[in-house]
Design brief:
Length: 543
């Protein structure tokens, strides 16, 4: 009886959301196609579509009932997940209406974003005249009403990559047969969005991480600031991809005519292309590299035409940012770390600056450095100045007055080595491996992902948003990187869902299980080398 009770408790514990989920639990060999699709349908419905707003079609940032904010970027990936499952259901005859349901869930989200954007049509006109952060489209809306949530002073809304991603997915979905654009007013508005995106190469924005430069000081001035804008490679790359995709595209699909075709300024596109090629493999001036480049050089943008530049950029990202639990966003990223002050929106300059090695002065009996906080006291400054004056005016300074470098002293940045690691980028690498036909890469990142994801009560995989180093382990981790265990965030545990990661995981597994192919979710063939691409239908209507 005791043995049976222990076995029963073990089975119950395996069903807990705290128990790491092995990918082998999800894979069923010799499973009929219908049962596979049914399993994915239940997963998408439970982990994604249950949280879709019935009014706007948007998806909330957090799945708790009190969250009323929806980000454009996250909602787009959720819509793409439903659309990908609809493409899989097209392969069977009797889909029980699920193809229609999934397609129109994606359409509802895309039109919800379009509705939110069109309510700010006046901002589009203002932004075309003066590309200022206070005149751009908002990137966060109320999930139920589509109203503005944050003012420009409270939130960094200028994110050209989000608008570009919307245009890119709009083209992909329409090319697959979905009807998203209905009338000429919407066609004209999309053309205006294209005008805004065309100048991405010269418009500073806050990028994918919404923090401006790496130093998180709120600066977006390209010329007057000492720091370059954050994620400029990401924004320019996604803008380039969106412009290439939508140029000459008919928004009414096969039923369109000449006045529903979108056109792009080719000179602006070429400037974006040249800017991107000159920036890579760096992400920007303040970012040596950034994991946000993965969706730029790979799915969904495929913005890099040069294979050598793609490989160089990808190798740099993997070499510098990959960890055991995922990829860091960028080096010395303080987001959600134990050392980050949650009460302040911006960092202080000293928090992102490397402290210099102290010098030991025998007269003072301790280490002193100009940049250290303790040297700001009057007595330290006076002593430091007196010693420097003695050195300059007295030839042959005695050895006792010579400064000595502190032994075994290693300066640390505040966030050095404790950056959060995001499993979502393992998923990006899985998708990239499928598109590149690199099965070894797919298998490698599947195995890396398996121990760090969890299982919901329904048995579906749940992706944590990030893994962090607790405050008690920070000092040890900074002394020896990778030595300490990291713990998952609340998003992806305790009944909450990280929707963006969940959506990409579903897309990745549909590709890995060969329920959809790369050409299904990229019908405009952006993943195909440029020299091998064919003309896509629905461009330049014959009417």
């Amino acid at each position: 009886m005791a043995a049976n009770a222990r076995t029963h408790r073990k089975v119950q514990r395996l069903g807990s959301i705290y128990e790491p989920l092995k990918l082998s639990f999800l894979q069923h060999t010799d499973e009929p196609l219908w049962e596979k699709l049914d399993r994915y349908y239940n997963a998408v419905k439970t982990t994604i579509l249950n949280y879709q707003s019935p009014t706007t079609g948007l998806f909330p940032i957090k799945t708790c009932s009190t969250c009323k904010e929806a980000k454009v970027r996250d909602s787009l990936y959720c819509a793409a997940s439903a659309w990908a499952l609809a493409l899989a259901y097209r392969r069977i005859d009797d889909d029980m209406g699920r193809t229609h349901e999934m397609e129109h869930s994606a359409i509802k989200c895309m039109r919800g974003i379009l509705y939110c954007y069109m309510r700010q049509a006046d901002k589009v006109e203002q932004f075309k005249q003066d590309p200022n952060p206070s005149k751009c489209l908002h990137s966060v809306f109320n999930v139920d009403t589509g109203d503005e949530v944050h003012s420009y002073s409270d939130y960094h809304h200028l994110q050209i990559d989000a608008v570009s991603l919307f245009l890119l997915y709009l083209v992909e979905m329409i090319c697959s047969g979905l009807q998203i654009i209905y009338n000429t007013d919407e066609v004209s508005f999309i053309q205006n969005l294209v005008f805004c995106v065309e100048r991405a190469y010269r418009v500073p924005d806050y990028g994918m991480w919404e923090r401006g430069s790496k130093y998180n000081n709120g600066s977006t001035e390209l010329h007057s600031s000492n720091y370059y804008i954050s994620s400029i490679s990401v924004s320019v790359g996604l803008a380039k991809a969106a412009l290439e995709a939508i140029n000459g595209f008919n928004l009414f699909g096969n039923q369109g005519c000449s006045w529903s075709v979108i056109f792009v300024d080719l000179d602006a596109h070429n400037r974006n292309r040249q800017t991107l090629c000159s920036l890579l493999p760096r992400e920007s001036r303040s970012h040596n590299t950034d994991a946000a480049l993965l969706p730029t050089i790979s799915y969904p943008a495929f913005a890099v035409d040069d294979d050598a530049l793609y490989s160089q950029t990808l190798d740099k990202i993997v070499r510098k940012l990959r960890g055991k639990y995922g990829f860091k966003r960028f080096l010395r990223d303080g987001y959600r770390t134990a050392n980050e002050d949650k009460e302040r929106r911006f960092y202080k300059p000293a928090e992102m600056k490397a402290p210099s090695c102290r010098q030991f002065y025998p007269e003072a009996g301790r280490f002193i450095a100009k940049d250290d906080a303790e040297s700001n006291s009057l007595c330290d400054r006076q002593f430091y100045q007196s010693v420097e004056l003695l050195r300059r005016n007295t030839p042959g300074v005695p050895a006792c007055l010579q400064p000595q470098r502190a032994k075994k002293h290693r300066p640390h940045w505040l966030f050095d080595g404790i950056e959060c690691e995001f499993p979502i980028f393992f998923i990006h690498m899985m998708i990239d491996g499928v598109f590149r036909g690199n099965q070894a890469q797919v298998k490698e990142y599947q195995e890396l992902l398996a121990p760090i994801i969890f299982q919901s009560f329904e048995g579906h995989a749940v992706i944590p948003k990030y893994y962090y180093v607790p405050a008690d382990f920070v000092e040890a981790e900074q002394s020896k990187h990778g030595s300490q265990k990291r713990f998952p965030s609340n998003s992806g545990r305790d009944g909450t869902i990280f929707l963006c990661g969940q959506a990409l995981y579903n897309i990745a597994m549909l590709l890995v299980d060969e329920l959809i192919s790369p050409k299904d979710i990229d019908p405009i063939h952006r993943y195909v080398p440029r020299q091998d691409q064919r003309n896509v239908s629905m461009r330049y209507s014959n009417q």
